[in-house]
Specification:
The protein is of the alpha+beta class. The protein has seven helices and four strands, in the order αααααααββββ. It folds into two domains: 113 residues; 48 residues, no CATH class. 47% of the residues lie in helices and 16% in strands. It has a four-stranded antiparallel beta sheet with strand order 1-2-3-4, covered by helices on one side. 31% of the residues are buried.
């Protein structure tokens, strides 16, 4: 099945994102996050389907997280195909893992399980749209949060560790 035609916003972002530093990229990606959830998921998926090495890690990670959060079961075949095409970027953590996490979230939906079952295994931040923070306690470089899934009610303890140059998360 061929990919759908590019939406104007996906086309514009794919043209503007290459070569931008983090702050201007975040401003553009903020426009994407402000879209209605279904539109944000479709535009984010189209960016993943068409991105190359110049698009940037931040854009890829943001788009993968939006698809994980708002994507529909019908997006799964396209996301799985995009996962095979997304470019690697050198670094300490392979950002393509975020795309794999999005695939797992949509696979959970396809199996009629809650997205939180995939989110907790991804070691990513708990999304405010998917999780309610019940409590939070800061200790040195570590924040310990108790969160509850807004859909199914499962609770988890999440540790955010800021001792490295980017935050890491562990779920229990």
């Amino acid at each position: 099945m061929p990919d759908p035609p590019l939406l104007p916003m996906a086309s514009r972002l794919l043209a503007q994102l290459p070569g931008l530093r983090a702050d201007p990229q975040m401003a553009l990606l903020g426009e994407l996050k402000a879209l209605p959830p279904d539109d944000a998921a479709e535009v984010a998926l189209q960016i993943l389907e068409h991105m190359d090495e110049s698009t940037g890690v931040l854009a890829g990670m943001t788009c993968a997280n939006l698809v994980a959060e708002h994507g529909k079961e019908g997006h799964l075949p396209r996301l799985e195909a995009a996962r095979q095409r997304v470019p690697p970027f050198p670094g300490l953590r392979d950002w393509r893992r975020d795309v794999g996490d999005a695939v797992e979230a949509l696979q959970a939906l396809a199996k009629k399980r809650c997205r939180c079952s995939a989110t907790r295994t991804s070691n990513t931040a708990p999304s405010e749209k998917l999780f309610e923070t019940l409590s939070s306690k800061a200790e040195d470089y570590v924040d310990v949060m108790e969160v509850r899934c807004r859909h199914c009610g499962c609770t988890y303890q999440v540790e955010r560790d800021d001792s490295y140059h980017y935050p890491t998360f562990s779920w229990r």
